[in-house]
Amino acid sequence: MATATYEHISHAVERTPYHLTPEQIAFFDANGYLILRNWVPADLLTRLQDAGDAWIQQGWDFQAEGASADSDADDYNFSDRPTGRVMFRVNYLHNKGQDASLELLGSPQVMAVAESLCGSNFVPTYESMVFKEKNDGAPIIWHQDAVHPRNFRIFNFDLYLDPSTADGGALRVLAKTQSHKQDFCTLEAQYGWNPPDVVVVEMQPGDVLLHDVMVAHGSPKVEGKARRRTIYYEFRAAEQILTEGPWDRDWVDRRLRLLPLGLAAYQSAFPARDPFDWNIQEAYRPDSSADRAEELKIAHGVHTSGAYCSAGDVPTKS
């Protein structure tokens, strides 16, 4: 894999308190993660916590109705545990009747960070809420979200809605592993959940973790803990997508249409606050369509493959 310098990305001059400093960007590039404490204002956080409750209830209602709508089949992810059926993920947050997700997307706290790491033509590529219900302590195995050539930054903005502590299955990050695809079978066999220099990321509501999609991370099994919800927004540069895929220009245009909706939602909810000055280049500025419902859910179809230890990767004993 290429050594990432990202010199071709035009970083914004620090114009707001929410743009990352050069020191923060350097830390992120060196370690693959960065923690932003108390990053999201309390009033927006409360709206998102309420929205999180509503999304979970909608998922269970959808399940109870038979989950027969093919277009929504991937919106709510369930799994069968020894203790019963659980829901653990809600996808495509913006079309589920809670304006808070768009307010967060259009906030300076999100858009300035995205501009800092991806340049002015940043694209919101994923939006989901991943959570563990009370008493659902299933592990999330060591993995990398997406493996790519590292000519551009691709990162996740992870907003914590609930406390995540070391004894409650907090995320573990293996710093400096983002430069290449990892051998997770060997990692797990040698170290389990305690490799050298592992970082246990303890977070409080309103804290944000920025993580490179190639930094190794996961969380161990725990039991009997409270609900833990995290909102994930992934961002990529438009230039990265159009150069490396896996999506085309039409998909990028449709995804970029979410940003004016987010800016409008934020301004409507918080009219006394300064909005973000969106600096997208005119060549990428999208035209809005008249179909708001279509604007709010842009399915992926394909994904950039990640990495983890699968059964086929485990070496056989001679």
Outline the fold blueprint.
Layout: H1 22-31, E1 33-36, H2 42-64, E2 76-81, E3 84-91, H3 100-105, H4 108-118, E4 122-132, E5 140-144, E6 154-160, E7 171-174, H5 184-191, E8 198-201, E9 208-212, E10 216-219, E11 228-237, H6 238-244, H7 249-256, H8 258-269, H9 292-296, E12 307-308
Antiparallel strand pairs: 1-9, 2-3, 3-4, 4-11, 5-10, 5-12, 6-9, 6-11, 7-8, 7-10
Structural write-up:
- It is a single chain.
- With 318 residues, the chain is an alpha+beta fold.
- It has one domain: q2cbj1_9rhob like domain (Jelly Rolls).
- Helices cover 28% and strands 22% of the residues.
- It is built from 9 helices and 12 strands.
- Strands 1-9-6-11-4-3-2 form a 7-stranded antiparallel beta sheet.
- The longest helix has 23 residues, at 42-64.
- The protein is globular.
* Helix and strand pattern: HEHEEHHEEEEHEEEEHHHHE
Task: Please count the beta strands (DSSP E, at least 2 residues each).
Answer: 12
Helix content: 25-40%
CATH topology: Jelly Rolls
Rg over CA atoms, rounded to whole Å, is 19 Å
- The assigned structural class equals alpha+beta
Would you identify the CATH architecture? Sandwich
Widest β-sheet, arrangement of strands: 1-9-6-11-4-3-2
Largest sheet: 7 strands, antiparallel
CATH class call: Mainly Beta
